[in-house]
Amino acid sequence: MARYVVNRLAQAIMLLVIVSGIGFAVLHMAPGGPLSQFAASAQMTQEDLDRVTRQLGLDRPLPIQYLDWFGRMLKGDWGRSYRDGEAVLSVISSHLGATLELMATATIIAVLLGCWIGILGALRRYSLFDALATVGAMIALSIPTFWFGLVTIYVFSVKLGWLPSGNRETVGDGSFLDLLHHLIAPAMVLALVETAMWGRFMRSSMLEVINQDYIRTARAKGMPEWRILTVHALRNALLPMITVAGLQLPTLLGGALVAETVFTWPGMGRLFLDSIGYRDYPVVMGILMFSATMVLIGSLLADILYAVVDPRIRVG
Amino acid sequence: MATAVLSTAQLAPGQAAWRRFRRHRLALAGAVIILVLVLGSAFGPYLLPFDDTYIDIMKRFAPPLSGAHILGTDELGRDVLARLMMGGRVSLSIGIVAMVIAMAVGIVVGAFAGFYGGVVGAVLMRLVDAVLCFPTIFLLLALAALTEPGLVTTTVLIAATAWMAVARVVEAQVRSLREREFAVAALAFGSSNLRIMFRELVPNAIAPIVVAATLNVAKAILLESYVSYLGYGIQPPAASWGNMLNNAQIYLTSAPWLAIAPGVAITLAVTSFNFLGDGLRDALDPRMNIP
């Protein structure tokens, strides 16, 4: 087990190095590179620019610059926002809570609903429910999230007036019920795609399990059907879902960005889009690297957790 | 079951695949819808009396089916149907061209990684893993923000964020096909590595490649709609299904039809390509030929 974890950890660190390399390349693709902020000012003379270049160490060879940048990233020095001079990491962390709240709620909805649909679809394979769920999942995966958000606002805010059309709380209120009221629509929109994916994975996992020999054996020895399903089938079918949770993270983060934009939700995705609008490259780069690192850690945790619950993985 | 296997075994592989595909009604429906969308976008604008960029401020916000404008007009009095058709040209072309570029990159990377394996393969595939760590929309928006927006940039950037899945598929295929007799025979003939890779191995992996390509078009159309909706893709006055939804949120209360038509078009196109890909997977899956 320890060997597997160390192995997987080494892989993740190597990936992080490549990911940071891509991030560094993107940073230098920016017009004017890291100098753009200073070059934009009309009062800067060429002489000033040269001085800043030397001060920031931008006259050094690229590999040295990369090592320096990567080292500072590891130490938590992610640069400062062009907008207000605040440290990038603290800007991100002040927006992270809202995003995590949205993502967690959507995930809970998606896991419960998706697993239920997937299990039922697998048990009643080729039934009307299964057909509708399969087609529905495909459509859910094809609807642009932002458009589904617009439709949700139109129906539930404009027409029915049940839900607020955006923001995380009513100014001056902010009670738990008020927060919940604001959370429903964006979480629902974000959960749509996730539910479809969980449903599809759960269905195929369950189908694989219920055709196994040990299920037939359990049935042959006269075990009650509910016990076969819960103890034997479900427990084994749920195992691979751990991997799905890890795989979902990039989609979830991307979906959160869109949902946050449509519902003016003050999270990391919206911050990212605002920062792009302001050409605030340090924050843009910071969030890009932060989200990639989150995905990396997420899949690492999923793999390790899977190895803990399924011994076949760590031996093989 | 044995008779079914026999009856398909007597057919040419292409015919058998076509039979399986025909059984997949949703995929067939998807193909028909795609055809309608493509033809409508290609020839529709010639049949309409309105130009997609013609501004008629007196007739702004005309609701659908009121007068000559079938789908109504937008905030500048432009005909929504004309914009939908011209937008379809842009969105569908981006979907298909981005797919072609992504396939080319993915096939080359996957073929080299799968064929050579070892250090080359490991490095290339870790690069694939690394790019996949970035949530697609974040990477796409960051790149789009750093470049001049437009048709070409949008297409290239979408391709740049969509080739990795293809590379994975091709790598796995090439790695397993490399050991097969026909590949070894080609090597014994003295074929060059490049020839074996692209004339022997890749053509033998064509089924999963075609499926990946179809699903890739769906993904590219969806991504175009995201970046254009967020303002970093196709720029007005040119229309795309994504950027038609740009202002739709502002006018959601007064002119909801502006949000409906493009959204339905995107969903239809993406769903159709996804169903088509699903059907092709069932039809082309070679495992079904093995009794």
UniProtKB/TrEMBL annotation, chain A:
InterPro entries (UniProt xref): BPD_transp_1_N, MetI-like, MetI-like_sf
GO biological process: transmembrane transport
Coiled coil: none
Membrane-spanning intervals of the chain: 12-30, 102-123, 135-156, 176-198, 237-263, 283-309
Cleavable signal peptide: none
Localization terms from the record: Cell membrane
UniProt protein name: ABC transporter permease
Organism of this sequence: Bradyrhizobium vignae
Record gene name: appB
TrEMBL record, chain B:
Keywords: Cell membrane, Membrane, Peptide transport, Protein transport, Transmembrane, Transmembrane helix, Transport
InterPro entries (UniProt xref): BP-dependent_transpt_permease, MetI-like, MetI-like_sf, OppC_N
GO cellular component: plasma membrane
Compartment(s): Cell membrane
Segments traversing the membrane: 26-48, 90-115, 127-145, 151-170, 201-222, 255-277
Main location: membrane
Gene Ontology terms: biological process: peptide transport; protein transport; transmembrane transport
Membrane topology annotation: Multi-pass membrane protein
Pfam families in the record: BPD_transp_1, OppC_N
Family the UniProt entry places it in: Belongs to the binding-protein-dependent transport system permease family.
PANTHER family: D,D-DIPEPTIDE TRANSPORT SYSTEM PERMEASE PROTEIN DDPC-RELATED, OLIGOPEPTIDE TRANSPORT SYSTEM PERMEASE PROTEIN APPC
Protein name as annotated: Oligopeptide transport system permease protein AppC
